[in-house]
Specification:
Chain B: Belongs to the PEP-utilizing enzyme family. The structure holds 2 protein chains of 2 kinds. Chain A is an alpha+beta fold. Chain A has 3 helices and 4 strands; from the N terminus they run E-H-E-E-H-E-H. Chain A has a 4-stranded antiparallel sheet with strand order 1-4-2-3, with helices on one face. Chain B is α/β, with parallel strands linked by helices. Chain B is built from 22 helices and 16 strands. Classes of the chains: A alpha+beta, B alpha/beta. Chains A and B meet through helix 1, strand 3 and helix 2 of A and helix 2, helix 3 and helix 4 of B.
Chain lengths: 82, 560
């Protein structure tokens, strides 16, 4: 497993379009993908409801865990776009 | 013997056909409901209902495109949520029925979102919609929404929400009947815009069952159940005669004695331009720009805005196009304009220009895009601010417009305080446009969407007419124009009264333009003034309408 800490630069945080893109990308990957807000408990990054419930806002730090660095790159890019 | 239900006619015309009800409420599966023991079969039913719901939402999204697609595909993701699916399976394994398991699993997330407040709380409605669709499939009851039917039908509902209208196919709907709602409800506005006959505030509609034949008279405000074929024929002939008289009215708006009253269109985007031109609009009196901003994660950029404004300005060379700057607020939350701390009463909160004063860069971007769109088109661009309350609001907006190079910025008169002190506001505002829907809501302290307050949501309320008169007089004294762009302008009789009150132009949904043009052409300015005085002297809305009609004899032959 690989881990990445990302400061969310997306204006709307991990909601709306970024949330849908984030979950869509995680769901396509094999294996577990989790995301946590700061040092909170991780939730499945494949669950839109779990990700929305984290209520990640612009400027929050998230911790993503996944099996590959490529997937981490993709997810981090989504969290920083928009 | 045919039964006749009475309501309020809000959009003229006659429609007859089988009734179909809009389904909104899906029954809640009883708490603690158990299945018959076959866990595997029950879990498969639940999974299948969720997957089919996801497919349907994704399909509808692909059909709708644009921002609607974004919302609908997010909803499809909710239906396919693996954490939700696990929770449903666990509940079914414990013996809970598939329908109740789905309901309970959604409730967990629903409560979480609702508790978070703000943007997340606004997503609760999206989540509830997904839940209701999945539960309806499991219970074998109709899926909520506008019914689908190959045969044209009369749509019957308690009330229509803006979301319902997105899926309504005007080619399949013959008429609208709602139990609730008033003349300014979404149903009324939609019906007039689409030219569909409509009767609202018709409590008898609740008892109508699917398939019953209804005859809807949108002028008289009546709904006949199982009408005799001769009655349908007669009603259609009468409506056709009126429609012919209305269609025969062409040219710019003016009274019988030649007093000009420019007739303009209310539009919500470039898509409404063809209907405005077809109905002879002399310009645009209200260009609502919210469509560019709603249901999206980020603010539209400069180029996107310029294109949307240019598309409208190009259609009206030499004519006036009045653009209302973004009217956002707590009841229409935007992802990129975070609402301020909890507003218990959004209608009285930070909306319209109040919101823009918190986020001036959003207004700056919009004004700059408007100025650029106007530079290479021949239309006469004007801008106006919503929810202006006092002279400071008007001055702030005029300064922002001037900085963008737009002269003659005007204000909407929707807040009673602005109407009462219109003389002061006229000093800085280039023109007035009275928004009668909100002005009525605020004058009578009656929420537009609360059906039980229909009596107060009537722009015929003499107090509302008094405020319109104050604004029009103040504008005239300052040499300014004072238009009306609310639904009141779309009522042919009220349009004559507004003219008599001193209103200088009328803007409405395009479908209403021909009838208003025909009405004006049959009355004199003197008659309009007499009707206005009589209406203001009345004690209630109904009396005001009656008194006005007595002074407008030319309208009787049109059946208004």
């Amino acid at each position: 497993m690989a881990e990445r800490r990302v400061k969310v630069e997306s204006e709307v945080g991990l909601h709306a379009r970024p949330a849908a893109l984030f979950v869509g990308a995680a769901a396509k990957a094999g294996g577990d993908v989790t995301v946590a807000k700061g040092d909170g408990s991780p939730v499945s990054a494949k669950s839109i409801l779990a990700v929305m419930s984290l209520d990640v806002r612009h400027g929050d730090e998230i911790v993503i865990n996944a099996e590959s660095e490529e997937l981490l790159d993709e997810l981090a890019a989504i969290a920083n776009a928009g | 013997m045919a039964d006749t239900l009475s309501g309020v006619g809000v959009s003229p015309g006659v429609g007859a056909g089988p009734a179909l009800r809009l389904v909104r409420a899906v029954p809640e599966p009883p708490s603690g409901e158990r299945h018959d023991g076959d866990v595997a079969a029950e879990a498969a039913r639940a999974a299948d209902a969720l997957e089919r719901t996801a497919e349907e939402l994704a399909e509808r999204g692909a059909r709708a495109g644009g921002e609607a697609e974004e919302v609908l595909s997010a909803q499809a993701l909710m239906a396919r949520d693996p954490a939700l699916a696990d929770d449903v399976r666990r509940r079914v394994e414990e013996g809970t029925s598939a329908a109740r398991a789905v309901f309970d699993a959604f409730t967990v997330y629903r409560d979480m979102l609702a508790a978070a407040g703000g943007y997340l709380a606004a997503r609760v409605a999206d989540l509830d919609d997904v839940r209701d669709r999945a539960v309806a499939r499991l219970l074998g009851v109709p899926v909520p929404g506008v019914p689908e039917s190959a045969e044209p039908f009369v749509l019957v509902a308690d009330d229509l929400a803006p979301a319902d209208t997105a899926t309504l196919d005007p080619g399949r709907v013959l008429a609208l009947v709602t139990a609730e709602g008033g003349p300014t409800s979404h149903t009324a506005i939609l019906a007039r815009a689409l030219g569909l006959p409509a009767v609202v505030a018709c409590p008898g509609a609740r008892a109508v069952t699917d398939g019953t034949t209804l005859l809807v008279d949108g002028a008289g405000g009546t709904v006949t159940v199982d009408p005799a074929p001769e009655l349908v024929e007669r009603s259609r002939e009468r409506a056709a005669a009126r429609a012919a008289a209305v269609a025969a009215s062409v040219g710019p708006g003016r009274t019988a004695d030649g007093h000009p009253v420019p007739l303009l269109a209310n539009i919500g985007g470039p898509k409404d331009v063809p209907a405005a031109l077809e109905n002879g609009a002399e310009g645009v009196g209200l260009y609502r720009t919210e469509f560019l901003f709603l249901d999206r994660a980020d603010a539209p950029g400069h180029e996107e805005q310029v294109a949307a404004y240019r598309a409208v300005l190009e259609a009206f060379p030499g004519a006036k196009v009045v653009v209302r700057t973004l009217d956002a607020g707590a009841d229409k939350p935007l992802a990129f304009l975070p609402p301020s701390a909890g507003e218990p009463n959004p209608a009285l909160g930070e909306r319209g220009v109040r919101m823009m004063r918190l986020f001036p860069e959003v207004l700056e971007t919009q004004l700059a895009a408007l100025a650029e769109a106007a530079r290479d088109t021949a239309a006469e661009l004007r801008v106006m601010a919503p929810m202006v309350t006092d002279e400071a609001d008007a001055a702030w907006f005029a300064e922002a417009a001037a900085k963008a190079g737009i002269e003659g910025a005007g204000v909407m008169i929707e807040v009673p305080a602005a109407a009462i002190r219109a003389a002061h506001i006229a000093a800085t505002a280039g023109f007035f446009s009275v928004g009668t829907n909100d002005l009525t809501q605020y004058t009578c302290a009656a929420d537009r969407e609360v059906g039980a307050l229909g009596r107060f949501q009537d722009p015929w309320q003499p107090a509302v007419l008094d405020l319109v008169a104050m604004a029009a007089q103040a504008a005239d004294a300052a040499g300014r124009e004072c238009g009306v762009c609310g639904e009141a302008a779309a009522d042919p009789v009220l349009a004559c009264v507004l003219t008599g009150l001193g209103v200088t132009s009328l803007s409405m949904g395009a479908g209403a333009l021909p009838a208003v043009r025909a009405a004006l052409s049959r009355v004199t300015l003197q008659e309009c003034r007499a009707a206005a005085s009589a209406a203001r002297a009345a004690r209630d809305a109904e009396g005001a309408g009656r008194a006005a009609r007595d002074h407008l004899p030319g309208l009787a032959e049109l059946g208004f």
